[in-house]
Amino acid sequence: MKTKMIILALLKSLILFTIVTILVLTENAATANINHAFYTLIADKIHPTLTTTAVWISNLTHWYSYTPIILMLLILSHTRVKVGVPVGVALVSSAILGPIILKNIFAIDRPTINQIVNAGGFGYPSGHAMNATVFFGMCAVMVVRYARSKVMKVLFFTFAIICMLLVGLSRIYLGVHTLTDVVGGYFAGSAVVCAAVLIERHIYNKAARASERS
Fold first, then answer.
1. pLDDT for position 60
2. pTM exceeds 0.85
3. What is the mean pLDDT of the chain?
4. Count of CB atoms within 10 A of residue 116's CB?
5. 98 and which of 20, 130, 135, 155 could share a cystine (Cβ 3.0–4.6 Å)?
């Protein structure tokens, strides 16, 4: 992917995140109605099996749940620098930016009606959605970049999208996030992915030029 396209994607993500944030902070009535309507649609489907699945997805997608996979990528010599480091740095950045910085800056409370599980801290943006977007997004970038099989690229990209959507839906289903919390998390995560790819590309190109000069 060309650098200009990545920069454009970064700008789009930041603009969309800003728009959602403004709508949330100003307590826009239309936005609140959409959040309520979407949750009502999901709440009508509440079932013990779905609840168990949603809790399982939620528990498996805390930022630290991705650690074993990243450690494996860092341990293997052929994936350490090209994959492990970029994915690991991006996820750590997301884990700090989302739950620690953005949530405390905006200080938007979580929904309080029909919470199926307990969740601490503020709600906006969804840390689960943001971290899932960063982890699966970065992994998708690496697969598209290095995999030789076009089928594998398409399959993994599709898998990544499905995982992101399931994480977001599970958080809304469990009553700990609104639709705007999740969408804000997606846009914030997309911005982190774009920024990480741009920084990684800059470092790689700089190192390549230095190697050529030497």
1. 86
2. yes
3. 91
4. 15
5. 130
Please enumerate in sequence order all residues whose Cβ is within 8 A of that of 62, keeping only pairs 6 or more positions apart, or say none: 128, 131
- CA dist., res. 137 & res. 122, Å (int): 24
The span from the CA of 180 to the CA of 29, in Å, is 13
* Torsion sign over Cα 121, 123, 124, 126: positive
- The neighbour count for residue 30, using CB atoms within 10 Å, is 8
Identify the pLDDT of residue 61.
Answer: 82
Q: Which residues contact 169 (CB under 8 A, 6 or more apart)?
A: 42, 54, 182
Count of the separate structural domains present in the chain: 1
| Token code pair at residue 143 | 């697969």
Residue whose tokens read 């650098």: 3
Closest-CA residue to 51 (of 175, 159, 208, 143)? 175
**Measured distance CA(91)–CA(175) in Å, rounded:** 25
**pLDDT value at 1 more than 80:** no
Q: Which domain holds residue 162?
A: 3-213
Six-digit token pair at 19?
Answer: 């728009």
Rg (CA), the chain: 18
Find the length of the chain.
214
Q: CB-based contacts of 212: which residues, under 8 Å, 6+ apart?
A: none
